[in-house]
Fold this sequence. Notes:
This protein has about 300 residues and is an all-alpha fold. The chain has helices spanning about 5-10, 55-60, 75-100, 105-130, 135-160, 165-185, 195-220, 230-260, 265-295.
Amino acid sequence: MRSSNPVFSRRGFSRDTGYAQFNAQPQAGGPAVGTQPNPYGQAPAGNPYAQNPYAQQDLQQGAPQAPVGTGRMTMDDVVTRTATTLGLLIVTAALAWAFLPVDEANMGKSYGIAIGSALVAMVLGFVQAFKRKASPPIILAYAALEGVFLGVLSNIVDTYIAPGAAMQAVLGTMAVFAAVLIAYKAGWIRVNRRFYGFVMAAAMGFILLMAVNLLFAVFGGGDGLGFRSGGLGILFGVIGILLGACFLALDFKQVEDGIAYGAPKEEAWLAAFGLTMTLVWIYLEFLRLIAILQGND
């Protein structure tokens, strides 16, 4: 299963590492990797259509078997890397809020720094998305620069449009994350081909509409087609948050499959990167929605 997250959708976890034959004993709920390898790949329980890229790559390259229990990605690895990435983002956001003032005299300079940081972060995100392996320096640099952008933007919204919006957006993002995690673990969300296809189609339509709206706003002035203000803005804000929740479910499935397949430990950085990008998406949609609801437009 590939996630709709840009990091995961290109190729899932990397396929050139040769770690599938690590373990003679399967993890709970996972395939028996390494014992009588299946030349067609083996899928974790509950995902009958997925293939094990690690087993396939090992069979093609004849990768040597690693010692049992070494170098495999675990949930603790994913949690630790995600906490590190998000922690850095939060720290830089707080520093940007504190040291990049948004008063009338400094608004232009601070906003320019924020936009510059966002553009560099976007470039780093694309670089990492197309790399064959995780690069912790790139991922951490992305998080730091994204934090600068979010800190300044949140300060502007909080100061001039909707006081308290930043904290509300943080709480909303945390609530969505917790709700999706609980629903996923309880089996209320079934991530399968149909779910994946629906989310991808909805995401492509959403992004296309936002791009068209942006073009109309740039060349026609105002808010373009009105997808980001008024009643339509509220509707599309809710849709954006729901899409972010779906992205989270796909990301959880991707991480679960990676662990079951015996993905190498460094792949936890890719999981952290993808989850961070999804949470940033949800936060921005919450911030925009709250600004519309509480603002003057």
